[in-house]
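#struct-pred
JK: can someone run the complex with adenosine-5-diphosphoribose? inputs below
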Amino acid sequence: MRCRLEGGVLELVQGDITLQQVDAIVNAANRRLAGGGGVDGAIHRRGGSAIMEETRRRYPEGCPTGQAVITAAGELPSRFVIHAVGPVWRGGTHGEPALLASAYRHCLALAVANDCRSIAFPSLSTGAYRYPVSRAARTALAAVIEFLEEREAPELVRFVLFDEATYRAYAGALGENTGVSGSGRSRGPRSSG
Ligand code: APR
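RT: done, structure tokens with the ligand placed:
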């Protein structure tokens, strides 16, 4: 599913973030930047040890929740990995929506500051951090759309959703945000519908 907004193009695909040929991919990291499972595990496995070495050297203090840091991408097809720390879901009354939106905004700002024309996001916080997917999708898309409209960059923002249910949640939320219907489905990094 592809949507042309005033400030750039927004795409939803079902797939694997580590295969994306974009300038920057986003990692769903933790505050210690210590690696883990899910997206984090897949990125470090495929990208090789250089990513963790750079992370330890440049960001020994880790990264606060709601923020992000950037490294090179090792053996991955992208140029950069942006390591974002989304909030752990604790019922929704601990500032989770603001922290989640902030994580997306920090990633986009880092991408623009590093001359990235394209960026791919996973669904931050909706795996190990248990953020309800439909709520996360609404917040994530609203944050990205607002940024694109304000800054008119990056040119392409792609959400790479791992499973069907997550893809559907984002497609539904995009419809709510933009009035675009979920029927124009696309799969894989190059297709559009
Ligand atoms: N590509 C795209 N999405 C993926 C991939 C992948 N290769 N692998 C998993 N996902 C999906 C999950 O299915 C989920 O929908 O990404 C979403 C986020 O899940 P997590 O990776 O668990 O991220 P999060 O909920 O933010 O939890 C972060 O988990 O791995 C640890 O170190 C990480 O402590 C941190 C925490």
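RT: quick notes.
The two ends are 5 Å apart (CA to CA).
Confidence is low (pLDDT under 50) at residues 182-193.
JK: thanks, will look after standup
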